[in-house]
Design goal:
27% of the residues lie in helices and 19% in strands. By secondary structure, it is an alpha/beta fold. Strand 12 and strand 13 form a beta hairpin.
């Protein structure tokens, strides 16, 4: 009997944390950051206390109380006494690994808390993106997926000593096991990138090099299959796990309508042949009945940008490399330059280490890098390297200001504070190519975004507007965002073609969709509950 216990991703989009147990072999399927629950309690200025380690996320129900699962450098020895009466409390034996489906934090974020001897199984691209994301951000203690700074075990009582310890820059990298290629066949640039930055010295003490070379997935206690799938970030995959009850398939996040939809189709064909016992399937987009394709995003974006004679801002997630390439093509077709931020350049350069089809920034005439006006005089090392490597590609606010009609700026809401330096001319265009707000905080940000656009007399296109308390993109301005998730009809098709004995929906606000639509299909749908176990 295989036991599947669900600690996240239940009636919510994201935060997936699934424990698979087969005898004394155990795996986690993703270990994501639970945005929705986190937002119930926390905001920008009220965060879990880094110094309190595991206590805050455990008490607030953000992490399941599973003794033996977490790093011991971030807990006090008495910690678990407090949770013995919690109905979800358990002492967990050895966990053989976490299967990471992709690098979105709602699937990967809380890997930060796991014991460092639990290996992370994933694709090479996902491993590299987790590192690039962490290198280029000030990742909070609860989002340090690729490497972390171990806390001193014994806190010194002398305050001076404590100050010294906090300067210690030791970083410990997790063991990543690559399932889709041979780590020994990676080129030297890729190998170098993996350990880059993990040897920082402090003035008083040279700390150890704690890089951990990539390994293969063949040593896992389970026979695993990794299936690349199409999603809104490169490197996404689904997993097949051969258990004593048969194959268990975990979809991660996926779609059929993206540029790499073929990957998802191959996944469906190959898993159907395994005649799986169970399919754990995402259901983000169950209520949608149709999809916008990336090709439509290109056509619709081109149509509106081609007739603009002023500055264009394109608002989309640059981690969605397909979307970035769509806007790069639009920039070429309209004789503009696409200006991306240094962190986006770093990500693009990183993915190119593994996927040669990604453009080389140095060779791509239509691609430039925007240097923030108020950037620090001593930028972080990764950023300094980007500025140095692409020296001739750097544009400043003054460059954009004097030739506004020549640029498409890849800005999001959070970059708008650059506008006072750019002074966009009235009638500049703001193209919104992302999803509608799905929580209160995002709605507040959208109100602010509209105020910014009013202040600088922008013309918005594809922007959600509020009417009767609902935020919606006007019908005539739709078609500028291709979702990372399959629509309801596609999801049903995926389920029916794979035809598992049991289907378990996760990552959805409407999991009963599957019950309503699959009741006569011969597939048994079981809805998981938070902390509940399903035996297959
Ligand atoms: Zn995702």
């Amino acid at each position: 009997m295989v036991r599947l216990t669900f600690y996240g991703g239940i009636n919510e989009i994201g935060g997936n944390k699934i424990l698979l147990e087969d005898g004394d072999r155990r795996l986690l399927l993703d270990f994501g950051f639970p945005y929705k629950r986190h937002k119930l309690f926390y905001e920008e200025y009220l965060k879990p206390r880094g110094g309190a380690g595991l206590l805050d996320p455990l008490v607030m129900g953000l992490l399941p109380p599973l003794e033996g699962l977490y790093r011991d450098d971030i807990m006090s020895p008495e910690l678990w006494q407090q949770f013995q009466d919690n109905p979800l409390y358990r002492e967990l034996g050895r966990v053989d690994g976490v299967l990471l489906s992709h690098a979105h934090l709602d699937h990967s974020g809380y890997i930060s808390f796991l014991r460092d001897d639990i290996p992370v199984y994933t694709t090479a691209v996902t491993a590299f993106i987790t590192k690039a994301m962490q290198d280029s951000s000030r990742a909070d203690f609860d989002q340090q997926v690729c490497y972390f700074s171990p806390k001193a075990q014994e806190y010194p009582t002398d305050w001076k000593q404590k100050a010294f310890l906090s300067k210690n820059n030791t970083k410990q990298q997790r063991q990543f096991c690559i399932a889709d290629r041979n780590p020994e066949a990676l080129n030297s640039d890729a190998v170098q990138f993996w350990s880059w930055g993990l040897w920082e010295k402090t003035k008083r003490q040279k700390t150890g090099l704690f890089s951990c070379p990539l390994d293969t997935h063949s040593r896992c206690a389970f026979n695993l299959r990794c299936f690349p799938v199409d999603h809104s970030i490169p490197g996404a995959c689904a997993w097949g796990i051969e258990t004593s009850s048969g194959w268990v398939i975990y979809s991660g996040d996926l779609r059929l309508h993206g540029k790499r939809g073929e990957l998802t189709r191959r996944f469906i064909g190959e898993t159907a042949e395994l005649r799986p016992k169970a399919l754990i399937l995402e259901g983000t987009g169950v209520e949608r009945t149709s999809n916008v394709t990336e090709q439509e995003v290109y056509q619709n974006g081109l149509k509106v940008i081609a007739v603009s004679n002023e500055l264009v801002i394109a608002d989309f997630s640059p981690r969605d490399v397909d979307r970035l390439l769509t806007f790069l093509q639009i920039a070429k077709d309209t004789d503009r330059k696409l200006a991306i931020l240094p962190k986006d350049a770093y990500l693009l350069k990183t993915v190119r280490l593994l996927e040669t089809g990604i453009p080389d920034i140095a060779q791509e005439d239509s691609l430039v890098i925007y240097q923030e006006t108020t950037a620090s005089k001593s930028p972080a090392l990764w950023m300094r390297n980007i500025y140095q490597e692409y020296d001739s590609k750097i544009v400043l606010a003054s460059d954009v200001k004097s030739a506004q009609e020549q640029f498409i700026l890849c800005f999001s809401f959070f970059d708008l504070n650059e506008l006072p330096s750019i002074c966009p001319k009235p009638g500049s265009l703001y193209v919104y190519s992302s999803s509608e707000p799905h929580n209160e905080e995002q709605e507040i940000d959208f109100r602010r975004l509209h105020e910014w656009l009013k202040r600088f007399k922008f013309r918005g296109f594809g922007l959600p507007v509020e009417s009767n308390g609902e935020w919606q993109i006007p019908d005539v301005e739709r078609g500028l965002h291709a979702s990372g998730h399959a629509c309801g009809t596609d999801l049903l098709q995926i389920a029916q073609q794979i035809k598992p004995e049991v289907l378990i929906p996760v990552h959805s606000e409407h999991p009963d969709f599957y019950i309503n639509h699959l009741n006569s299909s011969g597939i048994k749908v079981i809805l998981p509950t938070l902390g509940g176990t399903i035996e297959v």
